Amino acid sequence: xxxxxxxxxxxxxxxxxxxxPAPTKIVLVVMDxxxxxxxxxxxxxxxxxxxxxxxxxxxxxxxxxxxxxxAPGITPGSGVGxxxxxxxxPVAHPVGRGILEALGIGMEVxxxxxxxxxxxxxxxxxxxxxxxxxxxxxxxxxxxxxEMLRERVSVPGVELTLEPVxxxxxxxxxxxxxxxxxxxxxxPLETALRxxxxxxxxxxxxxxxxxxxxxxxxxxxxxxxxxxxNYLLLRGFSALPHFPSFADAYGLNAxxxxxxxxxxxxxxxxxxxxxxxxxxxxxxxxxxxxxWGAHDFFFVHHKxxxxxxxxxxxxxxxxxxxxxxxxxxAILELxxxxxxxxxxxxxxxxxxxxxFHPVPLLLWAPASMRPDEVTTFGERPCxxxxxxxxxxxxxxxxxxxxxxxxxxxxx
Amino acid sequence: xxxxxxxxxxxxxxxxxxxxPAPTKIVLVVMDxxxxxxxxxxxxxxxxxxxxxxxxxxxxxxxxxxxxxxAPGITPGSGVGxxxxxxxxPVAHPVGRGILEALGIGMEVxxxxxxxxxxxxxxxxxxxxxxxxxxxxxxxxxxxxxEMLRERVSVPGVELTLEPVxxxxxxxxxxxxxxxxxxxxxxPLETALRxxxxxxxxxxxxxxxxxxxxxxxxxxxxxxxxxxxNYLLLRGFSALPHFPSFADAYGLNAxxxxxxxxxxxxxxxxxxxxxxxxxxxxxxxxxxxxxWGAHDFFFVHHKxxxxxxxxxxxxxxxxxxxxxxxxxxAILELxxxxxxxxxxxxxxxxxxxxxFHPVPLLLWAPASMRPDEVTTFGERPCxxxxxxxxxxxxxxxxxxxxxxxxxxxxx
Lengths: 411, 411
What we know:
The structure is a homodimer of 411-residue chains.
Chain A: H1 10-16, E1 26-31, H2 46-49, H3 53-61, E2 63-68, H4 78-85, H5 97-104, E3 114-123, E4 129-131, H6 139-152, E5 159-166, E6 169-175, H7 203-222, E7 231-239, H8 246-250, E8 254-257, H9 261-269, E9 273-274, H10 281-290, E10 297-302, H11 304-310, H12 314-332, E11 338-342, E12 359-364, H13 379-383, E13 389-391, H14 395-402
Parallel strand pairs in A: 1-10, 1-11, 2-13, 8-9, 8-10
Antiparallel strand pairs in A: 2-12, 3-4, 3-6, 3-7, 5-6, 11-12
Helix pairs in contact in A: 10-12, 11-12
């Protein structure tokens, strides 16, 4: 496990000398994949089409704008999108592919674990890679193969956890004592080359590399004769990065209310307390109310806007937005000092995928919000909102400022 | 005195190869604390409520936007806010606390002087700090104590100047030969600890440290028995930083017209000629006219917008804005090539303090301005102005460009 601590970003370091305690509460609602597009010229986006009386009222009272997740034109994955919203710089301090893959499927990764992504591939008779993606086998086939490997592969002294991801992709977690993550990828990146042997850069990473080599030896054995997926290529060995926690970076005692394990994992990565949020948005709001007294920052994650967008289902995405809108009164009843609603990225139903478009952003803070001329929440109104177009990583300082948690800089 | 020169910022360095002379004149009017907020939901901001026919006409002809003083969410002090407007990076090259405190109260600090902030504190009988702020004594009490120390404390070979600031805070200027500023804070930062002895990192700083130690010895004597303020903790020993001057950074022969000493001090810090601006806005305009031929950049500072905001006096802030508006024809009569009106930060009357909100920005440059759709000067119109939201440190290049003082970059 790498012991390097990720330093505070320059932005966080600037805040550090300015933090002051205040009895204020911040709620950050992340509607996953919120940003959208019209399905046809002249149409409305999902957010513009949805009936959102509560969001519109907050937009009229507060300030809106657009959040640029990473940089103009960059489409982020969920991990990167959330880390940016949380104020961490995913470009300066990237999270390892293995860790993101593990978090993405809700695999629990703890300190000392090493995670890696595995791609099922086809090896030819000569031992070189014939197809790096094993003919893009189905997710079902991937599941079946992982099941088989789970039963028949084991490495002494290291606990292996294997999980299917999607298509030809799977993930492996190595859990044991003194494992390092400075291990090369085994994927040769081109066909007609042999897979590369895993090697470690230091003694702990050599332990991981030996475990990986032994695992791969057994995988080859077990999958001998299987076709097209008869081997695994490993990429992105990585341990949990030591991000400065929300407590260290912002002086916040933060809690996460997320129904999906990926987002609980991301919240844990930055030291949030992960609360039991139940399995419905109603239970999520109930949990928020129950734990309201114990924390001063709440990350509320709403998934259905993303999954419906990925499915290309415009109407279902509208309904997912409306479901969150209907839950807002339960948040407002708690009288947050700062309420922010945005997304980690756009997932236009029209594109059936994450996109690079800036994401609608709404800020409501009764004591200090500066109203703009916008009266509804939607992509077009947000383009002329008072927050302008903000990099996601600059959002946290704005929320802290509105929560009276930042002192003046300089005399 | 530290001999390190602050380098040009990357932005200034880029300009440097592009500067070219032109017979043009730039006026930068800084309405201190200009940005505001409505006092109640649905209301107008100070600038929106004020009657400003001249500013509105310039806004209609020119381009407006919002200036972000330091970074989103950051509330700047006056020193930092002005340095940012002048194009210096206050984060990369912070100005010492002692210098900012001294400038903030209008104490004149010259090359070779060392300034430090003093906090009156309470020492217990055992010599440890019982209260780092001496029970937050009143400004009147602070003044009385400083008076007393002035009469009875002196250090051979070093001229001490003591000034009250506010509440428990005061400032000390050390003037003498060969004084350095690499001296530690004496504040132990926690109670129940002894104050730290001042020590210098190099021979000049050791001279300062010895003078400070001798001063503190006498302070302890003089305040013996006084309660709660019976000692001083010193923080932020600092000499005047060597900022590149306006002449070096921008090729400008700049002059400052400021009625308050703090702003004259800040102007001196960047090598502006400080003109006698009288004591009223009328006299300030008269001085501008008198010196019009001798300079090509004029920094005109207007204080009452900030002081009325700090007092929470919405109507007085409106009046202060209207007073500046009424003075604009006197500036326009001189036919400046570029006229910019903005603020160093926001001071909403509603918050009775500096705030982090972006600041209205107006640019009028007959030869090259690109009009937007905005026809009045105010926070809301500025949100849809043609300048967008600009970091304050990026303003100077824009002013130079409109003044035809920057060549093309690259072939």
